[in-house]
Specification:
- The protein has 581 residues and is α/β, with parallel strands linked by helices.
- The protein has 11 helices and 25 strands.
- The strands form 5 sheets. Strands 3, 4, 17, 18, 19, 20, 21, 22, 23, 24 and 25 form an 11-stranded mixed sheet that branches. The chain has an 8-stranded parallel barrel with strand order 5-6-11-12-13-14-15-16.
- Strand 18 and strand 19 form a beta hairpin.
- Helix 5 packs parallel to helix 6 and helix 10 packs parallel to helix 11.
- The longest helix has 21 residues.
- It is globular and about 75 Å long.
- The relative contact order is 0.14.
Length: 581
Amino acid sequence: MKLNFSLKYCSFILLLLVGCKKVTPGDSVVSLVVPLTNQTVILPQTDPGIAKSEGFFLNDWAPKSFVKPTFMDAASITTDATVTVNVDYSNVITKVPKYLFGNNSNPYMGQLVTEPVLMNYVKNLSPNIIRFPGGNISSVFIWNGLVGQPPADAPVNINDATGAIAPANYWYGSNTANWTLSVDNYYAALVQTGSTGIITINYSYARYGTGKHPDQSAAHLAADWVRYDKGRTKYWEIGNESDGPWQAGWRIDTTKNQDGQPQIITGFLYGKHFKVFADSMRKAALEVGAVIKIGAQLVQTDPTNSWNNVDRTWNFGLFSSAGDYPDYYIVHDYYTAQTNVDAATILNTPVAETKAIMDFMGITTQQGRVLLKPIALTEWNIFASGSKQMVSNIAGIHADMVLGELLKNKFGMASRWDLSNGYGNGDDHGMFSKGDEPDNTTKWSPRPAFYHMYLFQKYFGDRMVGSTVSGNADILTYASSFSSGEAGVIVVNKGTTAQVISIKITNFAAGNRFYYYTLVGGSDNGDFSRQVFINGAGPAMPSGGPANYLQIAPFSSTFTGSIKVNAPARSVIYLIADKSK
């Protein structure tokens, strides 16, 4: 087809889109042959509005640029694909909240800043947010107390879930012994690793305190921490898993309580106390010129049939008494049962469970007649135990899937539990070894999950974009875009057979080269290898990954149109496609 048009009245682009003004004598005229078939029109990206479940956690969003790496050439794959991945670069699902990659510290992992090897690993991991003191210890944590000197109205003994008397065993934020973590060294570790903090204050003191107004005493203690913090920490939590019978303060001795609290905690009581805490802490923040956000605990999925009666009415009670007082909502999830489940069961949990949490957040807030607020998953991992599942490469694959599903479901923040724990024959949530394995693994050696989460963040852009899979249900993908123009695709093969993956990216100005890493487990310990190999490089020790992980170059191949990669059984591929020049 031959078209004549006037340069005086319209541009080339307007000609293609809306036509052109009639040519008149004296106008400059050119001829253009335009093929009307096989035209490639690249649709631009349009950012969606910020989801209520992400909210202010996206305030610190920043663009990411990909720097072309030194690479190792890999031969192009010529065999037929068994699976097709389609990525739509123009379909932005969400901007990526930087706080989804967080982790938990705890008061029994040491002073952190005295451990340069660990600090270097955490800095490279770049969790962006680290929770403290986290876990059950936060319920007996006296942040400013001298060792052995709790507040006068903090009892020596408290009740456990059965009503039995047990020592309170308080922990103290001033303790600088080498086996614990002080408040000041937590702050110093945040600076050294380029992270921000999220602090869990001691709510349970409002329950077991023996003063006339234990809620006010506990709120005052929390507010004093806000004053001491002086704006260093934006995110705060009121308590940890307070609905659980394992928590200090779940059950109290009513004969020692002076303000008429019930023996067993309720969501309504927690919500009532939440307002007391929030008022005191917000006043303290105003005094020191800080802006803080305060989160309240929710039960994460439908508790109708929960074994714990408190859970059944927790959310409704909280909403009834606290209303819209919280700035955000806190949930925890450990995805699997505390049993010796197999790898397939573990890897089937991220998709269904993550969606179930967010779906329930919408339902429970609607039923409670409150606004949906940003959602923070401040503890997550797996509970599977008995076969070293927690320290395995499967746990690393699970971590990748959780991160991808958190993005799809638009969570605002997440922190994995935790940086360090204790080996316990492999039933260890710690991302780093404490050197207590029987085969003498070096202290602070990273577990496989470290390498997975490190590469996920490195090879995932600043926006999640849409992707679909056809050909095999064991293949999952999480796609992204970089503000510098590249496309990222993470491919998870949770199945037991290798697949050839064809990746097609539409609405993308593609270059001709892609870069990738492939992570697989070792041959030890059956399905639950304690090892991980990156592009064929593995650990020198019985567990973990290659010590030179920072120096391992990605594989790279050229491509035209679609990309092909081999996905081994139980593997993850982290891939970036170059943009056109």
